[in-house]
Amino acid sequence: MKILLLFLGLGAVTFLMRLSFIGLLGKRDLPERFRTALHFVPLAVFTAIIVPEVLMPGGQLTFAVSGEPRITAAIAAVIVAAFTRRVLPTIAAGMGVLWLLRWLMM
Using N-to-C axis directions, what is the helix angle for 32-39 and 2-25, rounded to 10°? Predict the structure, then answer.
């Protein structure tokens, strides 16, 4: 339940960050640089959440692909994202590889 609340809170913060510029200045009055920057806010927030969890499981920095299925799953997700540029296939590929590797390592 805490994780769901965390995701909902992060989504609300991301939405409010984007809405703040639009609400204060109006959508048509925003400079092009701000509109471009706001487009990348969700990606930046998502990256800030995921990268530490992938590279520092348990608080220890690791780059070993063979012993940690998270890194392999993240690489698979990045490859799928590069080819499809879609969120759901990216998440499905990353989670699928993670679950498969964890099941194989049991």
Answer: 170
Minimal CA–CA distance to 81: which of 68, 72, 66, 93? 93
Q: What is the dihedral of CA 57, 60, 66, 68, to 10 degrees?
A: -10
Q: What is the pTM of this model?
A: 0.60
Q: Which long-range contacts (CB under 8 A, 24 or more apart) does 75-78 make?
A: none
pLDDT at 22: 66
Answer whether 57's CB lies under 8 Å from 74's CB.
Answer: no
27-49 pLDDT, tens digit each:
566 678 877 887 888 888 888 88
CA distance 18 to 21: 6
**DSSP letter string, 54-83:** HH-GGG-----TTT-HHHHHHHHHHHHHHH
